[in-house]
Structures
1.
Amino acid sequence: MGEAIAFYTLAAFILGFAVLVIATKDTVHSVLFLVLDFLFVAALYVLLEAPFLAVIQVLVYAGGIVVLYLFVVMLVNLKRPPEAHQDPRRRTWLGFGLSAAILAELAAIALYSSAGAAPAGPAAALPVAGNTEQVGWLLYTRYLIPFEIASMLLLVAMIGAIVLAKREL
Amino acid sequence: MIDTFVIPLVKILVVLNATLVAVSYMVLLERKVIAWTQSRLGPMRVGPYGVLQPIADAIKLMIKEDITPVRADRWVFTLAPIISMVPALIVYAVIPFGPTVTIFGHAVPLYVTDINVGLLYIVSVASVGVYGIILAGYASNSKYPLLASLRASAQLISYEVAVTLTLVSVILMAGSLSMVSIVLAQEQARVWYGFVQPLAFGIFFIGSLAETNRAPFDMPEAEQELTGGFHTEYSGMRFALFFLAEYANMIVVSSVATTLFLGGWLRPFPNVAWLGVLDLIPGWIWFLVKSFVFLYIFIWVRATLPRYRYDQLMRLGWKVLIPLAILNLVATAIVKVWWLA
């Protein structure tokens, strides 16, 4: 009961801040709501008894990536006159259609998974105890290949960024 | 009832108040030490040898006029000092000041809580504190604060990498992310990790100077170039919050350094048996003494070294400290797997 209350409260905050992120006019305020949103998602992880994930969420998303967003927002002048917001090429109906399609897809997935699969039982016994150790164990055994591919992707992105930034190197 | 509610609340109160008092006296200590370095007396007027100076400062800052610039982003301008201060205070929750002691028949651990991701918690909360500086510079709508906050964010992000990498070497040694377990691991190994990981300790020290915006890396508030840096437009108590947050952060990094590299609440040289008499001194005193030494070195460094240039700072961070930290991490892992396993 208490858990349900906590979950729905957190979920309401997450959704509310998500709406504010896209509804706010000022870009910096929007980024700040994004930070708040990430912090509440971290609280959700705490509720799921995944403290490692919660802390990483704060460290990587709230503390790392969004700082870079803020950096970009502050360096780029985004204050445009109001008439610039009226884009004649804007495809409003296409946007609504695409959103509806994604909503339908998510709903279908939710219905299918809740009807089909049994609720996930206790995770298979791992040879290590502790949240952090278990995450590490799973990453280096069951999910080794996705993990390595992700690190390859990051390496490629890093090299790409260096190449773009230092063309004459 | 007493064990679940009263004792934690009392501990939180004690830690918060002790921190705030310590922070205000750090300011006095800094002024005194720098004055002595420069053959001056420092504050002498309020109380004997100026020991009541922090109280006078606090009264002055509270009754000063609180100005918000007209063109400032009012909400963010108000929020920024709060965002600086709160992370600096909540990290004290996981810092182990001492082992479990018995007070009036209750076993009381001398830390607010011990979570099994304690060290990561400190790093992540500290990374949120960066927003205070960035937003202060942005919201002031003034060019020097904005420049300072851009410098600050670049500096903090760069040095965070090196510092976190050194923390990983320590985590490898201890096999745990919990602050208490790291101290216990040093007790079991009978050595402070500062002696086993001197390189990591050195990088951590330099990095923490940069992370707390201390001289010689006090670029974000370089008063000669930036008229005071990111908090130029702040006045009164809001300015004081930034000031206090900086000193609270200094105490945090000293406490973390003490816990990770100087054995936390352990006595010096836990491997030498005949020094066992030193165990008569309670652990929390050892902890405070070690943290104090670290803080003193912070001030000493500020009084001694000139400020780095910005490009030198970046070069040091990316081309020296980060490669060294990675090297140290790899070496630690190899030693741990081949020799110690």
2.
Amino acid sequence: MKKLLAIVLCLAMMLPVLALAEGDGRVHITYSFWGNQTEAESVQKALDAYNQMQDKVFVEPMQIPNEQYTETLVNYAIADQLPDCGMVNENSVLYFARNGVMADVSDMYAGEKLQPMDCITFKDGGTPVGYSSSNEILILYYNKDMFDAANEPYPSADKPYTWDEFVEVAKRLTFDENGKHPGEEGFNPEKIVQYGAFVNNWTWQMEVWALSNGGAWFSQDGKECLINSPEAIESIQKVADLALVEHVAPLNVIPEDNGVGVGIGSKTVAMTTDGTWRLGTDFPNLDINYGIAPLPMMREEVTICTSGLTGVFKGKHQQEAYDFVKWYTREESNWDALVLTGIWLPKSEYFYKTEEGINEWLGNEKYPYNKDFETGRKVLVDYTMNYAKPTCWYFTPNTQVTTNEILFTALQSVWSGERTAEDVINEIYPELCEAIVVE
Amino acid sequence: MSVETMKVSRGGHLASKSRREKTADILCFLLLILLGLIVLFPIYWIFRSSLMSNGELYAYPPAFVPPAWRLENYSETLKSFEYLKFLGNTMTILLPAVFGAVVTATMGGYAFARLRFRGKKLLFTLCVGSMLLPSMVTLIPLFIGWSKLGLVNTYWPLILPHFCGGGAFNIFLIRQFVKTVPRELDEAATIDGCGYFRILVYIIVPAIKAAMIVVGLLKFIELWNDLLQQVTYITRRDRYTLALGLNIFRGSFNDDWSSIMCATCLSFIPGIVFYLIGQRYFVEGIVMTGMKN
Amino acid sequence: MTAISRKKRIRYNRSETQAAWLCLLPSVIGLTCITYLPMIASFALSLFSWNGLGDMKYIGLENYIRLFTRDTKFYGSLLTTLEYAGISVIGSIIYSMIIAMLLNRKVPARGFFRAVFYLPYVLPALAVYLGWKWLYDYNHGLFNYLIKLGGGTSVKFLDSSAMVTPSLALIAVWLSGNLIVIFLAGLQNVPRTYHEAAEIDGANAWQRFWKITIPCMTPIIFYNLLMSLVSNLQVITPALSLTQGGPGTGSYFMCFMLYTQAFKSHKYGYGSAIAVILFLIIAVFTGILFATSKSWIFYEGDDKE
């Protein structure tokens, strides 16, 4: 009897689920995104604003966990249930675009004052197919207190470290439980208390080191795989050797952790490379005195830029979705929630090339890195303008296979020290070449 | 109660119960304590991690006891982890699904174990065969099917399949247990004029109650962990389950380990409660077997 | 063969058949609509090249040829899966049988201990693996700290292709509370009269274990063996939540490979081909288990003649 009651209750609980959306005369469209609670709240705020400022369209959020985002979206596409618009992971933009799922947005900014930068424009064979919603570049973060404790001058915002300098500084900042540094007599790599450096080895971030060493992963037309060049291979090995040979970095075989939360936030690592979004997502929650600088360079000064895209999917509400995305991806619409919090760098040239533009965000007192305007300007603005190159997924097809799968798995053996970069890359090179061919 | 029965029966039969048996019991007890500590340790370690700051988590050497008991981690975590809501949603799916699975698996297992009919062997082979298939293989065809029925973004695709036999594993488990029930019992009932369903309800079900509870528990855990299906069918936050909530909680920047550990500990609770409830029925099941023999 | 089946056919009874089909109706619907039709669809897909969004292209056996001849990770993945399944099946059967035997004795606080050993299983698997990270981690993990404290050198539990499979299998053993419960339920179904009779006949505990407990438990052992073999061959959660398949192919389980190829790389046809192979592998092992089962399983209420 009790059981029966439980069942009836359960069924009753499900009824509201079955209730259909109320008819209010507006066109209901769906916007899909990934993110945690904080991100969901800021998305909801933006949607509320849009829903209030006009009465024709009502945008509903669709939240999908980050790790299953793209595959869930593809499932929906296969079942013909795609949302009307939504975030698209960088590695899948060209995949969606090429298969005719995304609407053409190349004229979205025609004639506008705010033009998105070229380096965050997704191109399929040279034709623009979409623009990232923001910009992010890779920079070097460091913990000032740890530098002070070692009597080490801070990394310069004007002149980046050469790789050798970087390793040397990192050695001076690394010590074991007896206070010995790597290379010193009696140094015990098994009992390191503090590491000097952590280079984020997420697969896509590794591309910057190939560029920095004078090589590349893929040709600019996205048709050729260049990762087997000595420069590209050497760059991977150099990063791996920070942990394996120099003992200045923690071993990170499953590239999941990052040096901000794990390292300089918990004072176990003095400096780390990572993306600029950390300014907004991590540092405000970390009670530390940090600084920023350009990435160290192997041969050339370079960083890479990237950011997710908000796509318009083909469907019967395509026009409404287009209008919403155009509104939503303006810096202005996300100004408080994403730009001033430091999570997004602006995507339009205006905010990098004009004094007023720069002052609007970097000069704003709410911006997390406004305490040191000059450094911020050099590392965030000038660095983007002068040295940022697009990540390979802006112009190479099938990066969901190449960087996400083939390289990701293969490089784990390099990080663990079981195999050399040369060995691994040569083994997977034919697979990579095959993977970027599209018929 | 059960222990009591056991004592009486054993004591009655063998008054000269040897001292060796007692020593063995003590040894077993000590062994259980030792193994229990080993088994519990990882759980303690997770719990300890939930009470530390991220900085403390990464410190060297690791702390065995949290340096400061940061209970506020939990209140922080609960701010963004809508525990009760996610729990309610989870239960809305789990309770009917578990019930459906137990009932239909018992029926199926009984038929396979006891009843004779044409095509049994083939059907049983097909049933066992379905276990060999990773569930993700059928994900896309099923998804297309449910979306054609217009049921995506409802809980039905997560509930209804469990009313269809409750999974081959469970049918099979019940079958194995029904087979351990002496056949004379239902033969006697047949002579008393019982039909097949009455035998199922009055003879078989009481005898395999423990197994049914086990099926319920297995199903509960299976659904609890079935992130793949839940991700596919539920995309609205107000309908999220705990598994999804935990996953979302890791978010796109998954480095707040102490909060993840808090959410993890919180998500442990329902499983433990469900187990403790099931445990009570276990004891009953033991009493039943005790009387039977 | 024919003689037996003819003999059986005579015994089919109409009301029994009706009752059976009624009981099995939900299962038949389930097997048809939820398992076999989608499965056939998926298997047909293995003959196509399909990226999910574009057109399907019939390519015959090309996916299989590629898998066996050109895929650099396939054999590694196969070996890893077998190694993992081997260690965790044997480990968890032995472990859970021992625990169940201990718990079936007259020990104080049995309910408490039962809860303790079952506890790992009722925890969300994903969360559990995340928790174990803090034990296995190379830099910050407890195990390595203890090893270093004892003067040893750090072990790459999850960070070397040789260690990662056994390390993950150990977690699987730890998680095998479900087997314990099933064993326990089985032990409690062993008629006590048998034990008592044997005791009166002077059989010692060891003899009773081998001559009574084990034979009575064979249906349950068989079930546990089968269940843990099938589920461990389909392992994916540790790779998804902890190791992402590496290093090398150290945790690149076949199910993970299937998932990655189909859902992450959008090679649905290729993923389906992997599913077919995985299905066949599991079928072979299950077949072996079933084929040998007749000779060692003892059914008390069996309908064997």
3.
Amino acid sequence: MISLADLTTDEEAVILNVKAQGELKERLASFGLRKGSVVKVKVLSITKSTLEVKIGTGMIALRFEEAKKIEVERI
Amino acid sequence: MKNLKIALVGQPNVGKSMLINAISNSKLRVGNFSGVTVEKAEVSFDFHNHTIKIIDLPGTYSLNEYTQDERVTKDFLENEEYDMIINVVDATNLERNLFLTTQLLGLNKKMIVALNMMDEAKKEGVCIDEEQLSSILGVPCVKVSAVTKRGIGKLINRTVDINSFDQESSKLVFSDTVEEEISNLVVFLKEKKYKSELSYRNLAIKLLEEDTKIYKNMHAKPIWTELLPIIQKALNHLYIHYSTKDIEEIFSQEKASFAKGAVLETVEFKKVDKKSFTKKIDSILIHKFFGIPIFLFFMWGLFQLTFEIGSIPMDWIDIFFGSLGEYAKTVFGDGELGSLIADGAIAGVGAVVMFLPNIIILFLGIALLETTGYMSRVAFLLDGFFHKFGLHGKSFIPLVTGFGCSVPAYMSARTLKNDRDRLLTLFIIGFMSCGAKLPIFVLFAGAFFSEEQAGNVLFIIYIMGAMFGLVSAKVLKVFVFKGKDEPFVMEMPKYRMPSFKLIWHTVASKALMYLKKAGTFILIASVLIWFASNYPKQPELEEQFTQKIEIALSENEKLELSNELAETLLEKSYLGTIGKFSQPFFAPLGFDWKLTVALGTGLAAKEVVVATMGILYSLGGDVDESNSGLIDEISKNIPFPVAISFILFTMIYLPCLAAAVVFTKEAGGYKYLGYLFVFTTMTAWIIAFIGYHIAQIVV
């Protein structure tokens, strides 16, 4: 099982599961990071601490720690 | 005339403020939501026999309680009285925006959806069938653009229209599974002829959503015993179907799929080949290697601008207040009253107003960073770095705001959700030297460095403060605020051309706030300091010196004697007594009683420090014509190592009374203010002590 954190720039994937709880899960969901969404990695920061992903027409930035909680499948 | 109260709701970065500006040119009234310091903007205007009042609620991604802004919005929508909602959505990012819309539909209020940014959507090849969308959502949708002002008239017309019709029930439909359970409940309620203000459908939905209020209300009624097993069965079905028992997640998924479906049916994306504006700029500004240097360059440029361009009007203001003081003396005479007005009030306030140009430029820069969308990029770039110090990429926003003024900085720390992260950020905001400290630094940089160097020195002072802050953050994180970090998830809004009107509004209100402070708080403080430095009177001493001066032989001797008199008078004044009393504590830092007094008054407001120094130093120096300015006085009277130590101390200790009050409120108690006072004063003392001794060795 790979997570969003395993993808590299310009790779696309579909979200299988968000392993977060409570508010974080809700937060991620309100940004569109939910089961079934298609995401594309746009930018990785130089220290691999943050990444920018595209969901639909919007762009979201998140930390690798959070990205690891999002299980995905490459498409 | 009918009154119409409208809540303006939308996600962040959808152009709500711009829309409210486009709707009404009448003045935006900015206040606070009661009890909290979240900004509340409203406009009132008359339209076709209606007095319309629009309240701009803080942006929220969904109706939850993640941040204080979101809590305010949710609380307002659920508990306040209002007639209808205007839901502003970003037409270029419809799916995510409609998620909030689906939640708003659940509130059962009259609503209209403003599809904002249609101009951008067109450029990006997004075509929306608003008729179709209206019929899916069950509320009217109007295409608007706050930038080009298209559709604004139509939006207001429709708003007034739907207010005069009865409310249609929401058309939010769920998946077949959920709909089946809803209809089961509705059938039961109908059979029981249950009396309810809500429609049976809405009641059923709320029961399935486990709405606390409804449960509280219904569980005391006879129907409850029969209703409960039906609800339990329904919920069990949902649990099995969704393989989770988290009902919130189930409905969140339902609403998301509804939003997705609505977009699928009504939006057409035409392929546009061009690489978008945002992507082009992003490829440079958040570039792996160039991103951070570019950002540092911007910040450096901002500080240079502040200093270089700011100095031009500063000279004019200085001259203006100088001549105003002289004029006041001709009107009120050279006596007590003249001195009070000219040397106390005008000199004190003038010293503060002089720095208005600097403050305007700095706030302009910060407003530009915010409205263009660059601020989020910077948070993205810097999170890796900040995280090492136990901070959050978002801490960047309050910290940068701290360079302008600590008060809004403390308030903006609210976007940090985790209490520990927020407290940590609050504690080190003071290290980011605020606009009011700028006058002190400008004064000292001007006094001890050449004009070409002054800008660089200023930059170094600011950077150094920030670095001390980061180190302190790490120390606090390791020893005080231990625990889990707040997750970092944020939107990267599109780059947008800033709206002149909005920027003007922000900068003007900040400048006004500063002037207000100068006009009231600092005026009083200046007069108090004047009094404390002029009283108690020493008539005997004055007479002694007058006699001595009369019999003095040379002009030089006369001058020396009168300077000595001024200083002795000051030493024996109330202010001098206070300064001398607390001076031993500051003696290891090289401060004399004058600097000690200046620091003490700085606890009230940093602007007062310069005003105090103006009063303290000009008294002994007025006689000599060749050194007119305070800058000369300071470079003459203060040794270089002491100046360094003074700058360092000022950099770190408590910003001002107003900031202390806001800090207390944001941190959640006076005990935190106590911690902050002890922490900053101790750090300031230690760093100033080290700086003083290093400077002594070097020079």
4.
Amino acid sequence: MITDSLQALSRALATKEISSVELTRQYLDRIARHNPQLNAFISVDEATSLAQAGAADERLAKGEGGPLTGIPIAHKDIFCAQGWLTTCASKMLSNFVSPYDAAVIARFKAAGAVLLGKTNMDEFAMGSSNETSFYGAVKNPWDATRVPGGSSGGSAAAVAAGLAAAATGTDTGGSIRQPAALCNLTGMKPTYGVVSRYGMIAFASSLDQAGPLAHSAADCALLLNTMAGFDERDSTSVERPREDYGRELAAAAGSRPLAGLKIGLPAEFFDDGCSPEVMHLVEGAIAEYRQLGAETVAVSLPSMQLSVAAYYVIAPAEASSNLARFDGVRYGYRAPEYQDLNEMYSKSRAQGFGAEVKRRILIGTYVLSHGYYDAYYLQAQRIRRLIAKDFAKAFQQCDVILGPTSPSTAFKLGEKAADPVQMYLSDIYTIAVNLAGLPALSIPCGFAGGLPAGLQLIGDYFTESRLLNVAHRYQQVSDWHLQQPTGFA
Amino acid sequence: MSLTLEQVHRVAHLARIEISDGEAQSTLGQLNEIFSLIEEMQAVDTQGVEPMAHAQDVAQRLRADRVTESGQSAQRNAFQEVAPETEAGLYLVPKVIE
């Protein structure tokens, strides 16, 4: 039951094969058993989750359930949930019990899903390994000496180890896709503006986007159907007619379901920056896609190599502004001792933020300061335009772009923690997508040395449904996404 | 380009983050490594390229200027419950005007 797809769980709940309370209990027991080893959750509240499950069972009994009613889902601790500790994995918010629900939380509540707990993450979503969390690093279920990726590492580890049926994440520079790749999951970052950011603690507002982490593309489509939608409380929420993101998955298909699809292979994704083992698996997936009827074309994203540099100006600049709100006045941590107002600010922030968050605030403050704005911030925004134009040009030649998600499989805990630049470069294949605002997902494409690798598919704006279908067709003929780590029976 | 210790202190002050001399010293090294990565941008000729501030080129929506929330005082209480220090519906901070 624990490893079933969301669709199968939904059927089992609808036919009373299992109740939501029983299902939720199973996951809670698994969390109690395995979380001490993985550290994937920051908060679990059994009574609240079971009460929600009971309410879901009543709804199901009346025949008023939807596809996610009664299904236990874990949420990244970046989403405010009323009555729940919402920490963003920071000491700064270690005492913050949210007085309101984020739009994403409210939407899952309305769908009758059970809030199973809040997952660990990099502090304020700043990191690629989950090692910057105030609550300690998360371990990768495939190898507990390795990182699960980040920043949505707790969500990824929880789903991979069967501690949640699915989870939410956020992706500012790869924070859904990279942990999905490192933990053998399917994870999607939708087009910027598709999912409301209301109540989602801001890191870099022009890049942040929420999305699902689950085993399959079919599961992600179900989750996105609940998460997506216009919200006037988010000024960048996109007003579009509702759509069923799983609509293409249901279509019957012959042996060549992707005939006519053009897959772009950017030269920049296939250079020597990627480890040979991961590249070998990506090439295996490309061969599979040709079998499915897709055609591959060479494309180029020449400005992509500048994406990490531009990102580490834009994201810290926006972060330095967003995180100015944490001043010890209205919520969160306040230093115990100070002489005056300025000292209260500077001590509260010095004590409340971790090293990586401070580093990024300092970078952001510097690039926005007088005399440096044009050379850094404006130049980064111009490069952002060049990157977006590269993608626009590539999408004149192809329907989706394919490449590795991460240049390597999961690295060792501590391996890159002392070297920020090496850590930043591990997001080389994912960052450009956020700068352009495009949708992308990562799907499992095999194992190297017992560790999973991810394949990234990038689509043009608002083509989530097609992307999910392209992922789904591969998952119909492969079983990488069904592999489970051992030790979590 | 390389930052000086003085600049690190100045930026930390602007960001309102207290920083010791020792921390500033180690931060300086890390920031300089990060900036050497960022400097790659400077080699690119971007003359005439329109800066891109946002993923979607859309204008901000406007709304009527009226109250849309209800139960303001209950809401205010709920939001002030998580504040470090409040009194009579106000946030308390150290005295700024003598």
